[in-house]
Amino acid sequence: MKDAFVLRLGRESEPDRRHFVGWIEEVDTAREFRFQSTEELLTFLSECLTDIRHRHESEPRKRDGQT
């Protein structure tokens, strides 16, 4: 599954306060991270998405009609 994440939220999460605790994994790379705050989660996602963008930019471009 390309550009996908698995997210598991812990019981300590407080959605009313927008405070999330848990575990996340980037499926493509199997990079995983246990986060203790929403800020940590967003930082991890930002880093992963930046890496994904760079990977896509470095992929060879396909010409029309090629698969």
Please tell me about this protein's structure.
By secondary structure, the chain is an alpha+beta fold. The chain has one domain (5-58). Helix content is 31%, strand content 22%. It has one helix and three strands; from the N terminus they run E-E-E-H. The chain has one helix at residues 38-58, and strands at 5-9, 22-26, 31-35. The protein has a three-stranded antiparallel sheet with strand order 1-2-3, covered by helices on one side. A hairpin with a 4-residue loop joins strand 2 (22-26) and strand 3 (31-35). It is elongated and about 50 Å long. It starts with a strand and ends in a 9-residue tail after the last helix. The model has no long low-confidence stretch (mean pLDDT 91).
Q: Average pLDDT, to the nearest integer? A: 91
Assign an overall shape: elongated
Provide the number of structural domains.
1
Main sheet summary = 3 strands, antiparallel
Termini separation (Å)?
Answer: 18 Å
Unreliable segments (pLDDT under 50, ≥5 consecutive)?
Answer: none
Strand numbers in spatial order across the main sheet: 1-2-3
How would the blueprint of this fold be written?
Elements (H helix, E strand, L loop, with lengths): L4 E5 L12 E5 L4 E5 L2 H21 L9
Antiparallel strand pairs: 1-2, 2-3
Short recap of the structure:
The protein has 67 residues and is of the alpha+beta class. The protein has one helix at 38-58, and strands spanning 5-9, 22-26, 31-35. The protein has one domain.
